[in-house]
Amino acid sequence: MRLSDSIESFIKTLLSQEETEVELKRNELAEYFGCAPSQINYVLATRFTLDDGYVIESRRGGGGYIRIVRVVESGQQRLAYLINERIGSAISEEEAVRLIGQLVQQQVVSLQEGEIMRAAVSSQALAVPVPDAIKDALRARSLKSMLTAIARQNRSAAKG
Amino acid sequence: MRLSDSIESFIKTLLSQEETEVELKRNELAEYFGCAPSQINYVLATRFTLDDGYVIESRRGGGGYIRIVRVVESGQQRLAYLINERIGSAISEEEAVRLIGQLVQQQVVSLQEGEIMRAAVSSQALAVPVPDAIKDALRARSLKSMLTAIARQNRSAAKG
DNA sequence: TCGTTTCTGACTATCTTTGACCAATAACAT
DNA sequence: ATGTTATTGGTCAAAGATAGTCAGAAACGA
Questions:
Q1: Do B23 and B70 touch, CB atoms closer than 8 A?
Q2: Chain B interface residues (partner A, CB cutoff 8 A)
Q3: d(Cα A93, Cα A123) in Å, to the nearest integer?
Q4: B159 touches strand C (CB under 7 A)
Q5: Whose CA is closest to A112, among B148, B93, B25?
């Protein structure tokens, strides 16, 4: 078994016992596995991405840490569909507004939350000198990122 | 737990019991925590800034002191300040996250709304090939756009 | 073999803590 | 009143403690 796989399972084991998040020290973990600290970053970058349903938070300096939070839950099918399939890598403002409107309609998000998301992907928000293709990509990323945050919130709200 | 974190909680505990301000002696506090006096300044500078909603006053010499005052503003005032003065034309992810956290703390926006905004301005959301300077500009526009949407919602909610 | 994935190490970035030196104010002596 | 000294707090740069990045080597799989 590869080192990366070992580290991946190790972290997933920590996460699977009721825990939705785990905090660790990069150097300690590297020490434990007898590898370079940067190996930990590699594992996180390749197996604990947002698309995989994880969010990584970290802090440097004394008392630094890496926190891994599992965010995807199969219950939020609509959000999961939008995030993983529907939106893709680029989306126009019109499409985005339509999808957001549907979410409000279906009461997946509140009216105000819908307004916030609309604002974030509005052409006004993206009024900087970059090609339209990049704006569409930005819109897709922004939207998916927000929807993932919502899915994560719903999940922790459901838990308590 | 870090020393800074301990000192921060200590001060916040003093502030949280009905008290809107607290006065202390830098040297005594440093003595109590067994650290260099300048450590106190570090904690104040990093965790009790105006952005965090605090004002620091102090005096040197015999009977000198440091006073920490928690500032109270209405949600609309806070939003207006952020939109018109604080954010400006560019903002880093770290700063944005801090400001959003403060809004949640002050209950100007809900936790979920905060998460949505965080997601919108996250580096993951902005992971497209443009210079950092443009990302910071985008972030500022996006954030102000969202905050404006919130202010507008609040206004119409107050009226109708 | 060739392209992809894994792994490492040097270099960089960030956060914390300390200590030497500076500045302001109060207390005191005259 | 004025000058001197004691008593505070302020600043800043350096050291220490973590984590991040990236180019290239090594291993792997087709």
A1: no
A2: 1-2, 5, 111-113, 115-120, 122, 124-130, 134, 137-138, 141-142, 145-146, 148-150, 152-153
A3: 7
A4: no
A5: B148
Say which residue the tokens 């990323």 belong to. A141
C-alpha of B9 from chain center: 15
Sign for the CA dihedral angle at B32, B36, B40, B46 comes to negative
E strands along B1-159, which residues? 21-24, 54-59, 65-70
Among B47, B58, B49, B56, which residue's Cα sits nearest to residue B7? Answer: B47
pLDDT by residue (tens digit) across A30-51?
999 999 999 999 999 999 987 6
pLDDT digits (tens, 9 = 90+) for B41-99: 999 999 999 888 899 999 999 999 999 999 888 899 899 989 998 898 989 887 888 89
What is the CA A89 to C1' C2 distance in angstroms?
Answer: 30
Distance CA A67, CA A89 (A): 27
Q: Are B64 and B70 in contact (CB under 8 A)?
A: no
Residue nearest to nucleotide C18 (CA to C1'): B36
Chain centroid, CA B154 distance in Å: 21
Could you tell me the CA-to-CA distances from B58 to B25, B48, B71, B103 in Å, in that order?
A: 9, 14, 16, 27
Measured CA to C1', the nucleotide nearest B24 is: D9
List C-alpha distances in Å: B110 to A26, A118, A156, B101. 33, 17, 14, 10
Whether residue A120 and residue B5 make contact (CB cut-off 8 A), yes or no, is no
Q: Which residues of B spanning 52-81 put their CB closer than 7 angstroms to strand D?
A: 56, 58-66
Q: Which residue is associated with the tokens 């809004």? A: B103
Q: Write down which residues 130-159 in B have CB closer than 7 A to strand D.
A: none
